[in-house]
Amino acid sequence: MVAAMRGAAACFRRLAESTERWRSFTPELIMCRRWYAAGADGDVVVIGGGPGGYVAAIKAAQLGFKTTCIESRGSLGGTCLNVGCIPSKALLNSSHMYHDALHKFAGYGVKVGSVSIDLPAMMKQKDNAVMGLTKGIEGLLKKNKVTYVKGKGKIKSGSEVTVELLEGGTQTVKAKHIIIATGSEVRALPGITIDEDKVVSSTGALKLKEVPKKMVVVGAGVIGLEMSSVWARLGADVTVVEFGDVIVPYMDGEVRKSFQKSLEKQKMKFMFKTAVKKVENSGGGLKLHMESAGAATTMDANILLVAAGRSPYTKGLGLEEAGVKMDQMGRIEVDPHNFKTNVPGIYAIGDVIPGPMLAHKAEEDGVACVELLAGKAGHVNYANVPGVIYTHPEYANVGLTEEAVKKSGKPYKVGKFPFMANSRARTVDDAEGIVKIIADKETDLILGVHIFGPSAGEMIHEACIIMEYGGSSEDIARVCHGHPTLSEAVKEAAMATYDKAIHF
């Protein structure tokens, strides 16, 4: 196969020398051209095998680039798949089923005996899901002929990466283009040492061997609320400590109030404008020294979860030596139109550059970056990236909050529809929440959509699509939605935005 490809490449070289019209050749010949130009070294090397990295590598290979993906973890999928999005959703689902068995089954007419937790079995189901998906990604790299190198990559120049292999030794990988996709890591807090035993990050919170009696969570963001939800459902007494004065600052204020009330009904407690300054570990438990409104206070806990955000992971990459510019937050500075750094040949995507630290955003970055390398029109609309919080009910949003629209001075209108008036939500006894749509008052262009309710993370994409194509609330309202479905709540909210809802 290699010999055949090189032979074709040589043939292409002769053809290319006799004509300048190579762009009209078939994709196969173009791929041969790239193979010839790259020689034995390659076209693209991606440092990082997370959602941004492995997607970029696969797409690059699909576009005909000779591609290498370097990953130091030893398993693909990055934080998201190994110790983030995927395992947390497995535990969120399992804990929700347990909670329903305790509190809802009887109302459905389902009688069960004594309900208890088998935490090792719950963890095994989570681990099996992670393992299967990780192996699946490895299979995708192989299928697309991406060279997978297990080790820690370090940039030596704009065309060369050295790798400390996990199995020992080093390897040099050369390519015309280097894409940095190393993701992010847990943000450390002064005075708190994470040991992943009593004081844990989200990684440790996914591996607890027993349900803690008292759990304190630092940070009322997405990770903090999701992990709080898991362990509160399983029986832990959970208190969330937040330095700011609200949960999830980017949420629409009106919807946030309903969201917080729902979490409080699930027995989660909140302390705002509070900081954990010091942690004492006596062996049997923790004593937290906190500061709230200038006053010192203490609290006991069995487990402390630090979920105060994440920081770009760029250590040991050789960025300083290579002269790659970074901002004050440690993010790599790139041209927002093409992901180029200030060093020719080096690009960056995902959590290491400005923008939301989301797996799906990183994937879009990866695809757009390599499409641009291939001469295509790669692009990411950052104004239309959805966010989802997988508590129950879920929260999902895209676009602007009402506060942001009001601040802009743009005339607007709002339409809302409660799930309590939705037939499907009522039939499955899961009717808490609301859909809220914000649109331009003059043009009816949708500016933002916020869904707090069952399956919000699935329903938000209808809004993403309509907003991507510059649609209006009337556009959604006039599309026939299946009945009875939860998605009808989106249609009704759209009707309420441009005119009036029917069922409320």
Give a nutshell description of this structure:
GO terms for molecular function: dihydrolipoyl dehydrogenase (NADH) activity; flavin adenine dinucleotide binding. This protein has helices spanning 2-18, 27-38, 51-62, 78-83, 85-103, 119-143, 202-205, 222-233, 253-265, 319-322, 359-373, 402-408, 423-427, 456-468, 473-477, 488-498, and strands spanning 44-47, 67-71, 147-157, 160-165, 170-174, 177-180, 184-186, 199-200, 214-218, 237-241, 269-271, 274-281, 286-292, 295-301, 303-306, 310-312, 346-348, 387-389, 394-399, 412-418, 434-440, 446-453.
Write up what this structure looks like.
- With 504 residues, this protein is α/β, with parallel strands linked by helices.
- It folds into 4 domains: 1-36, no CATH class; 41-186 and 310-384, FAD/NAD(P)-binding domain (3-Layer(bba) Sandwich), CATH 3.50.50.60; 199-308, 3-Layer(bba) Sandwich (FAD/NAD(P)-binding domain), CATH 3.50.50; 393-498, Enolase-like, domain 1 (2-Layer Sandwich), CATH 3.30.390.
- It contains 16 helices and 22 strands.
- The strands form 5 sheets. A 7-stranded mixed sheet has the order 5-4-3-2-1-6-17. Strands 8-15-9-10-11 form a 5-stranded parallel sheet. A 5-stranded antiparallel sheet has the order 18-19-22-21-20, with helices on both faces.
- Helix 3 (51-62) runs parallel beside helix 11 and helix 5 (85-103) runs antiparallel to helix 6 (119-143).
- The chain is globular.
